[in-house]
Amino acid sequence: MKLIIFDCDSTLSSIEGIDELARAKGPEVFAEVEALTNAAMNGEVPLDQVFARRLDIIRPDQATCSTIGQLYIDTVEPTAVSTLNTLREKGWTIAILSGGFKRLIEPLAEFLGIERIEAVPLELDSEGKYLRFDNSYPTTYNGGKPEIIQQLKQEFSPDTVVMVGDGVSDLETKPEVDCFIGYGGYTPRPKVQEGSDHFIYKLDELLALV
Ligand SMILES: [Mg+2]
């Protein structure tokens, strides 16, 4: 089988879910969290430190999570639906691998017909208030995405694995995959572009590459 794995934030959708959760808490929280996210995505601060700090600040509840879940769909990459449909016709199995939160990404995955989501579990209480995130989940730390890809390779024994993403944490998967495609439609990063096998600005450009 052929496995293609997509990052979610700033790749399948234009938004960064964590930033949108923060925006819902007001401009000061947003500015603080956005700076942390950018520092992590540019490889300036270790991801695990940023993760805990951001959630301690935001403490997202169920209502906010639902709002952002819909926002992921509203901001879907313009060529994503047709690209994924074509990939399925060509026999690709599609998965999402994200450092974002699983419950935020699930609506978009359903919209896109993607069954497999690897993303960070976020636990709320029975009243929908924030409890905790799973700080042992691999994508909360640097090197976590390659770890998940190793697990997926064991599970599926794919003949070919392709990864598509915009961030440094995505580029970390390159040694584990047959082809790494950098995506720069929203946040092109020189470091990612330099390291990629191919670099695209619209998702449908990858159809000529795989
Ligand atoms: Mg991303």
Reported by name, the CATH topology is: Rossmann fold
CATH superfamily: HAD superfamily/HAD-like
Specify the number of helices.
Answer: 9
Described by strand count, sense and barrel closure, the largest sheet is:
6 strands, parallel
* Top CATH class: Alpha Beta
Give the strand line-up of the largest sheet: 3-2-1-6-7-8
Integer tally of domains: 1
Bound molecules: magnesium ion
What fraction of the residues are assigned to beta strands by DSSP? 15-25%
Overall shape: it is globular
List the helices and strands and how they pair.
Blueprint: E1 2-6, H1 17-23, H2 27-41, H3 47-58, H4 62-74, H5 80-89, E2 92-101, H6 102-112, E3 116-120, E4 122-124, E5 130-133, H7 144-156, E6 160-165, H8 168-171, E7 179-183, H9 190-195, E8 198-200
Bound molecules: magnesium ion.
Describe the structure.
The protein has 210 residues and is an alpha/beta fold. The protein has one domain: HAD superfamily/HAD-like (Rossmann fold), CATH 3.40.50.1000. 43% of the residues lie in helices and 20% in strands. It contains nine helices and eight strands. It has helices at 17-23, 27-41, 47-58, 62-74, 80-89, 102-112, 144-156, 168-171, 190-195; strands at residues 2-6, 92-101, 116-120, 122-124, 130-133, 160-165, 179-183, 198-200. The longest helix is centred in the first third of the chain and has 15 residues, at 27-41. It is globular and about 45 Å long. Magnesium ion binds next to loops.
